[in-house]
Amino acid sequence: MKEIEQKLNGKIKRLTNKTFKFDERIGEGWFSAVYFLKTKEMAEKKLPHNHVTMQFFQKENAVLCGTDEAIALLHTFAEDPEKLEVNSLKDGDKISPYETVLTVSGPYQHFGFLEGIIDGILARRTSVATNVYNVVKAARSSGKQKPVIFMGDRDDHFTQQAGDGYAAFIGGSTAQATHAMNEWWGKEGMGTMPHAMIQMFRGDVVAASRAYHEMFPEDELVALVDYNNDVITDSLKVAREFGTELKGVRIDTSRTLVDKYFLRNHHLMGTFDPRGVNPELIFALRKALDEDGYSHVKIVVTGGFTEQRIEHFEKLGVPVDMYGVGRSLLKLNIGFTGDNVLLNGTPEAKEGRRYRPNARLEPVEYYKQER
């Protein structure tokens, strides 16, 4: 996200690129749990002069994300948002279990109906950011930082791409698969060739790569080499064709297939799982490329990678230069809770909850969020 933070009278003013696109029906309560709407109505009629403080927390060690979006939501749909007192941590902050990440103070009827929506924003964005952070951490466990490409476009509804892409950026992924995933942080999507491109050239990886290179000469040429399930043979074919112009090869072998390299070398079988993108295949590919004089060609792996699988590859020293990860980054395993903890300046919360002041919170100045 294009964000500038300016210190104004000791407060944080967040200036965004106005890319938050909210459904207007939020203001009508369409996405709020009905009991929040009933409480809003009751507060308006029975306790109009109330002043509450609502705090938000979660229960894991995590990388926080979604605060800017939640603040923009408040500034767009709360009543008299300029009169609310909002204090927040920042996107990208490391947070601890039960640490307060956001507080909102004001008349309940002005903002309370947004509680569940804020919980949902923080839960999804923080889950994705934390998942990506853990994968990026795993990808440097061998001592060398290896880039992680966020490839989650096919694993969730397309309307989630912009927010998920931003959360992935906050978590440490420096490249995303679609333009939408880059919308909030001002970049463009990146990618090379899918299997569909090779299919149209009837499995001829060299012909497909040549067409790609002619069409997109500014791009670094990275050939997808698992279409024929013969990774080493096809990698050497494109390397011999393009030489130094070939920057990398990508392997995306299905977990249900055994590469033809192992079928030709039966003596290697029996001591490991030969299916999919496995360490032994990547070691053999690296050796073949180096022996043929193509040590400059980098190896990109995709297909079912998780934090644990990357850690395993790195522990073994598998010569991977870049990981592409999708589905595992979108698992939502962090939930946020919003609680009213102060009423008219005094502690008042349900049993088991209490006001938890956090010295790290910074006050946020109101800005008008364009609809």
Question: How would you characterize this protein structure?
Answer:
This protein is an alpha/beta fold and 371 residues long. The chain contains eleven helices and 16 strands. A hairpin with a 2-residue loop joins strand 1 (4-8) and strand 2 (11-15). Residues 1-11 have low confidence and may be disordered.
- Secondary structure: number of strands: 16
Order of helices and strands: EEHEEHEEEHHEHEHHEHEHHEHEEEE
Please tally the helical runs, counting DSSP H or I stretches of 4 or more residues. Answer: 11
Class by alpha and beta content: alpha/beta
Low-confidence stretches: 1-11
Give, in spatial order, the strands making up the sheet with the most strands. Answer: 15-14-3-7-5-16
Oligomer: single chain
CA-based shape: elongated
Binned, the helix content reads 25-40%
Radius of gyration: 25 Å
Amino-to-carboxy terminus distance: 17 Å
Q: Major sheet: size, sense and barrel closure? A: 6 strands, antiparallel
